[in-house]
Amino acid sequence: MAYPNHNEAQARTAFQAHVEAIFFNAIRGAHQDYQSGYSPQQRLIHSKRTRATILYDHARARLDVGLAGVSGVHVLTYRGLTMVILDDQFLIKIPKKLSRRFLSRTYPTEQTLAFMTHTSQESFPFLHNRTSVIVGYLSNDIDAEAVEIWATCPDGSGRNHWKFQLQPAAGHGVGTIGPSTSLPPSPFSDADANEQGG
Fold first, then answer.
1. Based on CB atoms within 10 Å of each CB, which residue in 20, 39, 47, 131 is the most buried?
2. In angstroms, rounded to a whole number, what is the distance separating the alpha carbons of residues 29 and 195?
3. Domains of the chain: which residue ranges?
4. How far is residue 114 from each of residues 44, 49, 50, 125, 155, measured CA to CA in Å?
Protein backbone atom coordinates (compact mmCIF):
# COMPACT_ATOMS: atom_id res chain seq x y z
CA MET A 1 0.00 0.00 0.00
CA ALA A 2 1.29 3.46 -0.94
CA TYR A 3 0.82 6.30 1.54
CA PRO A 4 0.02 9.88 0.45
CA ASN A 5 2.01 12.92 1.49
CA HIS A 6 -1.07 14.73 2.83
CA ASN A 7 -3.98 13.53 4.91
CA GLU A 8 -7.72 13.95 4.45
CA ALA A 9 -7.97 16.97 6.76
CA GLN A 10 -5.37 18.82 4.70
CA ALA A 11 -7.16 17.91 1.50
CA ARG A 12 -10.52 19.08 2.79
CA THR A 13 -9.02 22.44 3.74
CA ALA A 14 -7.35 22.91 0.36
CA PHE A 15 -10.40 21.83 -1.62
CA GLN A 16 -12.94 23.94 0.28
CA ALA A 17 -12.12 27.25 -1.39
CA HIS A 18 -12.41 25.78 -4.87
CA VAL A 19 -15.40 23.44 -4.70
CA GLU A 20 -17.68 25.62 -6.81
CA ALA A 21 -15.23 27.34 -9.15
CA ILE A 22 -13.28 24.27 -10.14
CA PHE A 23 -15.19 21.11 -9.61
CA PHE A 24 -18.83 22.00 -10.12
CA ASN A 25 -18.17 24.40 -12.96
CA ALA A 26 -16.03 21.81 -14.75
CA ILE A 27 -17.77 18.51 -14.04
CA ARG A 28 -21.43 19.39 -13.65
CA GLY A 29 -21.03 22.01 -16.38
CA ALA A 30 -19.61 19.37 -18.72
CA HIS A 31 -22.65 17.17 -18.08
CA GLN A 32 -24.94 20.11 -18.80
CA ASP A 33 -23.05 20.82 -22.03
CA TYR A 34 -23.44 17.19 -23.06
CA GLN A 35 -27.16 17.07 -22.41
CA SER A 36 -27.87 20.39 -24.12
CA GLY A 37 -25.54 19.75 -27.05
CA TYR A 38 -26.76 16.31 -28.05
CA SER A 39 -30.30 15.09 -28.51
CA PRO A 40 -31.56 12.03 -26.59
CA GLN A 41 -31.38 10.07 -29.83
CA GLN A 42 -27.74 11.05 -30.34
CA ARG A 43 -26.83 10.23 -26.75
CA LEU A 44 -28.30 6.75 -27.16
CA ILE A 45 -25.82 5.87 -29.90
CA HIS A 46 -22.76 7.10 -27.98
CA SER A 47 -20.57 4.41 -26.46
CA LYS A 48 -19.35 4.82 -22.87
CA ARG A 49 -15.95 5.74 -24.26
CA THR A 50 -17.40 8.41 -26.57
CA ARG A 51 -19.47 9.90 -23.78
CA ALA A 52 -16.52 9.93 -21.37
CA THR A 53 -14.33 11.60 -24.00
CA ILE A 54 -16.89 14.34 -24.65
CA LEU A 55 -17.32 15.01 -20.93
CA TYR A 56 -13.55 15.10 -20.43
CA ASP A 57 -13.03 17.57 -23.29
CA HIS A 58 -15.76 19.89 -22.03
CA ALA A 59 -14.48 19.74 -18.45
CA ARG A 60 -10.96 20.51 -19.63
CA ALA A 61 -12.15 23.51 -21.65
CA ARG A 62 -14.10 24.81 -18.65
CA LEU A 63 -11.03 24.42 -16.43
CA ASP A 64 -8.87 26.42 -18.82
CA VAL A 65 -11.34 29.30 -18.74
CA GLY A 66 -12.43 29.09 -15.12
CA LEU A 67 -8.95 28.90 -13.61
CA ALA A 68 -7.34 31.70 -15.58
CA GLY A 69 -5.71 33.96 -12.99
CA VAL A 70 -6.83 31.93 -9.95
CA SER A 71 -4.10 32.00 -7.31
CA GLY A 72 -2.71 28.68 -6.09
CA VAL A 73 -4.31 26.58 -8.81
CA HIS A 74 -3.18 25.77 -12.30
CA VAL A 75 -3.91 23.27 -15.04
CA LEU A 76 -1.22 20.93 -16.29
CA THR A 77 -1.51 18.91 -19.49
CA TYR A 78 0.99 16.10 -19.98
CA ARG A 79 0.82 13.51 -22.75
CA GLY A 80 -2.86 14.20 -23.27
CA LEU A 81 -3.73 13.99 -19.57
CA THR A 82 -5.18 17.08 -17.90
CA MET A 83 -4.50 17.53 -14.19
CA VAL A 84 -4.97 20.31 -11.65
CA ILE A 85 -2.24 21.28 -9.20
CA LEU A 86 -3.88 22.66 -6.06
CA ASP A 87 -1.86 24.75 -3.58
CA ASP A 88 1.25 22.86 -4.75
CA GLN A 89 0.09 20.01 -2.50
CA PHE A 90 -2.34 17.98 -4.57
CA LEU A 91 -2.13 16.62 -8.10
CA ILE A 92 -5.68 16.03 -9.25
CA LYS A 93 -7.02 13.97 -12.13
CA ILE A 94 -10.34 15.33 -13.35
CA PRO A 95 -12.89 14.15 -14.27
CA LYS A 96 -13.11 10.38 -13.90
CA LYS A 97 -16.23 8.27 -13.83
CA LEU A 98 -16.31 6.27 -10.61
CA SER A 99 -17.65 2.81 -9.93
CA ARG A 100 -20.22 2.28 -7.19
CA ARG A 101 -17.26 1.61 -4.89
CA PHE A 102 -15.72 5.00 -5.70
CA LEU A 103 -12.89 3.61 -7.81
CA SER A 104 -11.86 4.79 -11.25
CA ARG A 105 -11.00 2.59 -14.15
CA THR A 106 -7.25 2.56 -14.69
CA TYR A 107 -4.78 0.85 -16.99
CA PRO A 108 -1.42 -0.17 -15.49
CA THR A 109 0.86 2.14 -17.45
CA GLU A 110 4.00 3.51 -15.80
CA GLN A 111 2.35 6.94 -15.62
CA THR A 112 -0.79 5.55 -13.98
CA LEU A 113 1.15 3.49 -11.45
CA ALA A 114 3.21 6.54 -10.47
CA PHE A 115 0.04 8.56 -9.93
CA MET A 116 -1.77 5.85 -7.97
CA THR A 117 1.22 5.31 -5.66
CA HIS A 118 1.98 9.02 -5.11
CA THR A 119 5.51 8.65 -6.46
CA SER A 120 7.39 10.66 -9.05
CA GLN A 121 9.01 8.70 -11.85
CA GLU A 122 11.24 9.85 -14.66
CA SER A 123 8.27 9.47 -17.00
CA PHE A 124 5.92 11.29 -14.58
CA PRO A 125 7.89 13.88 -12.57
CA PHE A 126 5.04 15.80 -10.96
CA LEU A 127 4.52 14.18 -7.57
CA HIS A 128 7.43 15.49 -5.50
CA ASN A 129 5.83 16.05 -2.07
CA ARG A 130 2.37 16.10 -3.66
CA THR A 131 -0.58 13.78 -3.09
CA SER A 132 -2.55 12.19 -5.91
CA VAL A 133 -6.30 12.77 -5.84
CA ILE A 134 -8.95 11.67 -8.30
CA VAL A 135 -11.99 13.91 -8.58
CA GLY A 136 -14.67 11.80 -10.15
CA TYR A 137 -18.38 11.59 -10.61
CA LEU A 138 -21.31 9.28 -10.14
CA SER A 139 -24.17 9.95 -12.52
CA ASN A 140 -27.36 8.40 -13.78
CA ASP A 141 -26.54 9.54 -17.35
CA ILE A 142 -29.88 11.40 -17.52
CA ASP A 143 -29.95 14.35 -15.13
CA ALA A 144 -26.89 16.64 -15.02
CA GLU A 145 -28.10 18.11 -11.73
CA ALA A 146 -28.02 14.65 -10.14
CA VAL A 147 -24.28 14.22 -10.69
CA GLU A 148 -22.38 13.48 -7.47
CA ILE A 149 -18.78 14.67 -7.32
CA TRP A 150 -16.26 12.97 -5.06
CA ALA A 151 -12.59 13.41 -4.20
CA THR A 152 -10.79 10.11 -3.65
CA CYS A 153 -7.22 9.32 -2.63
CA PRO A 154 -5.94 6.05 -4.18
CA ASP A 155 -3.68 3.72 -2.23
CA GLY A 156 -2.07 2.01 -5.22
CA SER A 157 -3.75 -1.36 -4.69
CA GLY A 158 -7.22 -0.76 -6.09
CA ARG A 159 -8.59 0.86 -2.93
CA ASN A 160 -8.89 4.37 -1.50
CA HIS A 161 -7.29 5.85 1.61
CA TRP A 162 -10.21 8.26 1.92
CA LYS A 163 -12.98 9.96 0.01
CA PHE A 164 -15.31 12.91 0.53
CA GLN A 165 -18.19 14.35 -1.44
CA LEU A 166 -18.03 17.85 -2.91
CA GLN A 167 -21.42 19.48 -2.54
CA PRO A 168 -22.90 22.40 -4.53
CA ALA A 169 -23.46 25.87 -3.21
CA ALA A 170 -26.82 26.97 -1.88
CA GLY A 171 -27.92 30.13 -3.63
CA HIS A 172 -24.88 32.33 -4.25
CA GLY A 173 -22.73 30.81 -1.52
CA VAL A 174 -19.67 28.64 -1.90
CA GLY A 175 -19.75 24.89 -2.33
CA THR A 176 -19.17 22.67 0.66
CA ILE A 177 -17.57 19.38 1.55
CA GLY A 178 -19.59 16.52 2.95
CA PRO A 179 -18.99 14.67 6.24
CA SER A 180 -15.84 12.63 6.68
CA THR A 181 -15.92 9.26 4.97
CA SER A 182 -12.41 7.97 5.64
CA LEU A 183 -12.17 4.36 4.64
CA PRO A 184 -10.90 1.50 6.81
CA PRO A 185 -8.97 -1.33 5.16
CA SER A 186 -11.29 -2.84 2.58
CA PRO A 187 -11.75 -6.31 1.06
CA PHE A 188 -12.37 -4.80 -2.40
CA SER A 189 -10.29 -6.40 -5.14
CA ASP A 190 -8.31 -4.64 -7.84
CA ALA A 191 -10.99 -5.73 -10.30
CA ASP A 192 -13.46 -3.36 -8.64
CA ALA A 193 -11.67 -0.46 -10.27
CA ASN A 194 -12.72 -1.75 -13.67
CA GLU A 195 -16.45 -1.98 -13.07
CA GLN A 196 -17.24 1.02 -15.26
CA GLY A 197 -15.60 2.88 -18.06
CA GLY A 198 -14.43 6.47 -17.90
1. 131
2. 25
3. 8-194
4. 36, 24, 26, 9, 11
Confidence label for 132 from pLDDT (cuts 50, 70 and 90): very high
Side chain identity at residue 119, one-letter code: T
Paired strand residues for 47: none
pLDDT at residue 34, rounded to an integer: 92
User: What pLDDT digit, counting tens, does each position of 16-61 carry?
Assistant: 877 766 778 888 889 999 999 999 999 999 998 899 899 989 988 8
Backbone φ and ψ of 46, nearest 5°: -75, 135
Separation CA 88–CA 74 (nearest Å):
9
Q: What number is the average pLDDT over the span 154-183?
A: 68
Burial of 151 by CB count in 10 Å (0-12 exposed, 13-18 middle, 19+ buried)? buried
CA dihedral 102, 184, 119, 60 (to 10 degrees): 20
